[in-house]
Amino acid sequence: MMQRRDARRRQPRPPRTVRRAGRFGPPARRLREWTTAKARRFGLPITFVLAGFLGGLGYAVFAPTTYTATAFVLVVDAGKGQSGPAAVSFAQAFGRLAPLPETLAYSSLPLPDGESGSSRAHIQASTSPDTPLIKLAGSGRTARDAAAYANAAADALVRYGTSHRSDTGVRVALMTLAEPPAAPSSPNLPLGVAVGTASGVLLAGLAAAVLSGRSGRAGRRERGRVPSAAGTAAVPGQVPTGRVEVGS
């Protein structure tokens, strides 16, 4: 008896990790299988959403900073000094001419240093169909450049309208000059992240719809391959008629 007890004591015990594996093995395996199934089903949509979020965040962080400043000019009748249908019509025309280099040549204010022919890309004019007001928005890498573009366009438009006053019968007056903005207009971190995430959600929805359609077609094909019970019961041979034949 003593020898048996000594032999049992001498036998090495299984490691604690082995005992724990026997206890927690099935739940861990089920959890791993569940995680794998969910990853196969939702992995691609989640990837699209994450990619859209990171893309929007990257654009908001690394995109060049742009400032925007705004100046306003008003078109009025030369004789009456009021706005009428003619003033509104000429405001529409002057708004289209404002960003052109030929119109900007009338400005007495210097444009910021930049590439030749790039001033039109930094000046945008917008008008209203009801009022003869022209909004001139200048954009630049710095706040001073943005204000300089807007003010140069406004000054050029006033001088251009004055030089053609006898022909048009309207007068272009300066309302407000642009001030250097305190904060950049783009990039906008919340807006960039929201747009990127929305794009990712849209792509994820399209991917989920495509995958769902494929899985549905695959399921219908699999069900079509299963033989019916009536088909398996059919046995080749003579069809029984219910009559018993007696041998002669």
UniProtKB/TrEMBL annotation:
The chain crosses the membrane at residues 42-62, 189-211. This is Lipopolysaccharide biosynthesis protein. Keywords: Membrane, Transmembrane, Transmembrane helix. It comes from the Bacteria. Coiled coil: none annotated. Residues 1-25, 108-134, 214-248 are annotated as: Disordered. It comes from Actinomadura coerulea. Residues 1-22 have a biased composition (Basic residues). Residues 116-130 have a biased composition (Polar residues).
